[in-house]
Design brief:
Layout: E1 4-10, H1 13-29, E2 33-38, H2 42-50, E3 58-61, H3 62-65, H4 69-83, E4 88-92, H5 101-117, E5 124-130, H6 136-145, E6 148-151, E7 154-157, H7 164-172, E8 184-188, H8 194-206, H9 211-231, E9 236-243, E10 246-253, H10 278-286, E11 289-295, E12 298-306
Parallel strand pairs: 1-5, 1-6, 2-3, 2-4, 4-5
Antiparallel strand pairs: 6-7, 8-9, 9-10, 10-12, 11-12
């Protein structure tokens, strides 16, 4: 079954409701599993429209649902699996405020990945973008990540759409931000990574991470280092430092990693722990941001964890079965 992934470019509450209300009604009429994940004040407006109707729509605040791109992918996947054999009709409006440039890039990539993760699900997703308030770059990228487009004067196929593998490759070719001079360094040169785990754990605590996110960073760094030892080119090393509210850990080796052109390893939810990419997928779940950059100077994986995070990776959709 083909998925429908449509960007809806709107301006103002009236235009928003004139499209989203009939869209949700169409899902109910087709006996689809209808979910609306939208921010305020749109959330309250839609609740009011459907209040007392007796028609079951599951409403979620985007501010709670859209906290971490990979976890949000996982949570939507749980909705699709729990709804089967019914198709899902989702009104999905991400949060674009409060992210720095690197975080925003991952959310833009997330919108592209939707096309792969749910390709055969038959799900329908309408993604509203408020052209009156959102940065022009976000609106422009929406046209590159959605195969279908609904905007003033246009409804149907989106000719600016870019395939996810090509889109993701462009994201990873961006320059790697420089490390600070005071970053602490540890060579990674042995199969026993006990010293690495102790090194990361002690520095994570010193830089102010709570116990759970510190443990998550240790586990993530261990996984990436083990992967560098097995598949990379020596020498390899680890750097750790504090960047504002974030604790950053970077693991690098001297190899020039060439991912397959159609590979989205580490982003697509694996079916089992034995599937390729399970390790990188797990790492992305454990940290707030994971970035891979590769070039002639080597391949580097940068892990960032906010000192304000709880380290909790639970599903926002718990209890929806």
């Amino acid at each position: 079954m083909i998925m429908e992934h449509r960007a809806f470019l709107y301006r103002g509450a009236d235009e928003y409701l004139s499209v989203t209300v009939p869209y949700l009604e169409s899902g109910l009429a087709s006996d689809q599993s209808v979910i609306a994940v939208v921010p305020e004040p749109n959330l309250t407006a839609l609740r009011d429209v459907f209040a007392g109707s007796g028609r079951r729509i599951r409403f979620f605040d985007s501010a709670e649902f859209y906290r971490h791109p990979v976890r949000t992918l996982r949570d939507y996947q749980a909705v699709v699996k729990q709804s089967a054999p019914r198709r899902v009709c989702a009104l999905a409006e991400p949060v674009w405020e409060g992210w720095d440039e690197r975080q925003m890039l991952e959310w833009i990539r997330y919108e592209s990945l939707i096309n792969v993760v749910f390709a055969g699900s038959g799900a329908r997703a309408l993604c509203p973008y408020d052209t009156g308030t959102l940065p022009p770059r976000v609106v422009a990228e929406a046209k590159r990540t959605h195969p279908l487009l609904l905007s003033p004067g246009h409804e149907g196929e989106n000719h600016e759409y870019v395939e996810p593998a090509t889109f993701g490759a462009g994201c990873d070719r961006r320059p790697r931000p420089a490390r600070p001079r005071d970053a602490e360094y540890l060579p990674v040169d042995g199969a026993d990574l006990h010293l690495l785990r102790a090194f990361v754990g002690e520095r994570a605590a010193r830089h102010g991470l709570a116990k759970r996110p510190a443990r998550n960073l240790v586990t993530a760094a261990n996984e990436v280092a083990a992967n560098a030892l097995q598949h990379g080119t020596p020498p390899a090393g680890l750097w750790i430092w504090r960047d504002g509210d974030d604790v950053v850990c970077e693991i690098g080796d001297s190899g020039f990693w060439h991912p397959p052109p159609d590979s989205l390893t580490g982003f697509i939810p694996p079916d089992t722990a034995l599937q390729r990419g399970f390790g990188l997928w797990t790492v992305r779940l454990l940290v707030d941001l994971m970035e891979i950059r590769t070039g002639w100077e080597g391949t580097f994986v940068r892990l960032s964890v906010s000192r304000g995070t709880t380290g909790h990776a639970g599903a926002a959709t718990a209890g929806l079965a």
